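Take a careful look at the protein record below. Let me know whether the structure tokens fit the sequence:
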Amino acid sequence: MNSISSTIEFLKQSLAVVASAESMDWLELQVAKIKADKGSMKLFLSFSQASRHFSKHPMDLPIETLQKAEAIRSGFSLKNWTGLQTARVILVLEAFSEDHKKWFEDMEKLFESADIHEQEALYAALPIYPFQEKFTKRAAEGLRSNMTSVFDAIALNNPYPADYLSEQAWNQMVLKAIFMQRPLYRIVGVEQRQNVNLATTLVDYIHERWSAGRNVIPELWRFLSPFINEEIVGLLEKVGEKGDELEKLAAALACHESDNLAAKELLAKQPEIKEKIENGEINWERIGEDFEALN
């Protein structure tokens, strides 16, 4: 991860692409006030007042800028960030000083008092904060939020959960994302955090859904691919027989990623789909995007 100063500079350059010169001048003035303030009031005030100067719309940054975010932190993305969100993150990063204890106390106060948009900014920036390991409880708490946008700020397009959440907290996040039908392809680090406990829970979930006459989100099968056994092969066969097009593609892709011989044989019975998978025409992102478009 890059230094805080280089991260701040990158965020400022990105924000300047979409914000007015007047807004950027306001931001620099607030930063100066924050650094001169021995207390916390300037940070809290500017954090709140930023909504008067920056847009709540996504910044829609050029691809080159988005690629630079990956250099700041692997898996980090500004793709869905707003100008307001970016300005607020700049303010809290600029407030970081040698008095680490005070900064953490200020951050806790911001998290506790934040409205929805403020929480979105604070949680989405988890992967670029200093001392990230200190925010694990805060992240787990945010994931319990009933506000979809706050949950998304942590769970989607964010490398923090994969790097820092416990297995239990990670599994709960994925299960909640499935229950809420969030776009699972936007969860970062799925492959590195796949685990048998989650797979076992999902198999039970599939049985429950099917018993109730309901389908499961197609992307769910991604989390089962490393753990495919005789029981899961049987489930995949049912998808091949009765599932819709996206479900069949997802089941086939899970078979493709599995080392299970029966799964490979099941995929071989669908040569056209197998060829498309091997050519890269079918992947989890494509399946996720198509499912998202239908719902």
Observations:
- The chain has a mean pLDDT of 95.
- The chain has two domains: 1-180, 194-295.
- The first helix runs from residue 4 to 16.
- The two ends are 36 Å apart (CA to CA).
